[in-house]
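Researcher: Here's the sequence for the chain we discussed earlier.
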Amino acid sequence: MSPCARASTSSTDHLSTAAQWRRTVSAAVLLAAWGATAQAQDVATGGEEADRSLEFGTVVVSAKRNPIDSLPTSTVILEGSDILDKSPLLQGVDILRNVPGLQVSTLSQGAFRERFLLRGFASAGEAVASFLDGVPLNESNGHGDGTIDLSTMIPEEIDRIEVIKGPFSALYGNFARAGSISFITKNRIDENLASLSLGSWNTQRAALTLGRTGEKFSHYYAIDTYHTDGFRANSETRRTNLAARWIFELSPRSTLRIGGRGYSADWDAPGYLTQAEWEAGQWQESNTILDGGEKERYDLNINYNYRISDSDSLGLTAFRYATDFHRWRDNGSPQTEEHNVLSGTMLKALYSKTGSFLTSNDSLLFGVDLLREDGDRRTWNNTTPWARSLLTADGEYYQTTYSAYGQIEMQPFDRLAVVAGIRYDYFDLSLDRKQVVANQLTGLVDVFKNNMSAVSPKLGATFDLSSSLALYGHVGKGFYLPTSFDKFLNTQLGPVDVMSYETGLRFKALPRLQGSISLFRIDSLDDVTREGGPTGPLVNSGDIRRQGVDAEITLDITHELSWLVSASYIDAEFRNYSTAGNVLSGNTPIETPPYFYSTSLEYFNSARSVGARLAWHGKGAIWLDNGNTFRYGSYAYGDAQIYYVNGPYTIDLKIGNITDERYAEYAFSGTAPGSERYGPARPRNVTLSFRLDL
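Model: Thanks. This is the structure I predict for it:
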């Protein structure tokens, strides 16, 4: 049964997505009077020096630096053309598959979230702060804290992606303990682009973008549709994205940008394989015909930028989003249903300044944020499929975050740049939850209130040893909140401190060889554990250390052939750590491999307009439980691609998983033997794509 049919079971006591969207539009009209965020222009580059940009959303702070320089932490910038040319983009997760030092994967359970591995943190988004034009993509208290659904983006819109590894930047607070990802869409566009992809298992994707640029008014529209039957039974997925953007040049010094987005998806989920099913080579779990889900998300973003002078800018932002998420799972009862409704409103103000007010070359950014999030989470155990029976959990929550942050870059000497920042976050938390007695909701409501705060200082420096060699390093503090309802229910808990240390080297040793290597350590201090036995109180106690080496190298073998490699070595362990009576000290946290890597050969002959790419990816074995008793082994797989460019036309053929490796993109376990579960990745597959610049 399609999840579309299941939607009729939604109870009327929930705020419908349509009603939320009407409220969203009304709020946005009021917010427009307040203002929106900065939209500054990149300063032109040239000669031996280039403008060094630090961007948050659409606010740019620039300072003159050597091109080898960047923030004093590992960073990756991918241009939009590279994203589109490297691979046909069928799923949202494909946008990030070529980011060095970052591994992304799907759960193979529909279009509702992805998995990230960065700096030793394996998460569904709770360790990676992600933004689209400054709008947070992390859902604070939805289906897991920090959940990110990359399917809500249209790849053809993306101008560039900026990845900051580690919790160094003062611009990012919650969810940034492993790093941050900022997706920046194209702004003023005078082009039309159409693309069509056809692939294995009746997979189709079509996208159309239309843009026009005028002296006083520019506008941009995009649509994306996707369908696949999936490589496993009961895994059909459907989604649609719409986006629009209008830009008004109000004066030579001020710009107003208004953008709206809508996303809708529904899917059938094939479930996870048991250990016996995995070892038998099966592709299908026994009881999954009831699994599936559906999701809608809408947002409205208003940005206003005023250029006070050639060196000063003030940006104001207001946005509103609403998400409605359903999930059905066959747990033998015969079914559980989860319904999450989440909405948020954010106000932001940023001031940026460049010049020589402290040293010979400085840039300053100061900002304040107010984020209000309202959510409603309910779960049912249904005795009849898609007919709600026993309501087992009911909680309405409110989370207001007040943030202030500043970051300054100074250049006291020609070869030295120093970056210092500090961030303050205050969380006002409230939860209204119905009481559960003997697995029955009593109708009585418990009200819980809590508040937490975190201060996050940062300090780093970059020293240019030569025009082709730069040494950098930093120390910074981040944080993360207790998960789920724990942060509402337990007033004794506070944020978990995260200390980050890194030193690295960026080089361009030869005209055709460039790259970086870094040593990092991230310590999570006073993690949330359970004191005593399984029913003991939650406390801040126990440390986790993640350290390792990141390396990225690009070698232009010829003008037409390049070799790229990125590799990460990770050593992670619990330190002085016990929870619920279990001593974990010395063990490795779940899902953290000792290494992962990607390497590729890329060829392009401009005279013949032909390109090709051969890539190989690998990942080491992971523990499936924190007790380190259940393990999933290492694997490696390859992809091949060939494409042809002729004027406005591009034809692209990709073969994924060319060796037909059977491996699990996601694996997990309980604490008892036989509790292992596996989400297999796609077997060998073919995708043919066409792109036309209209």
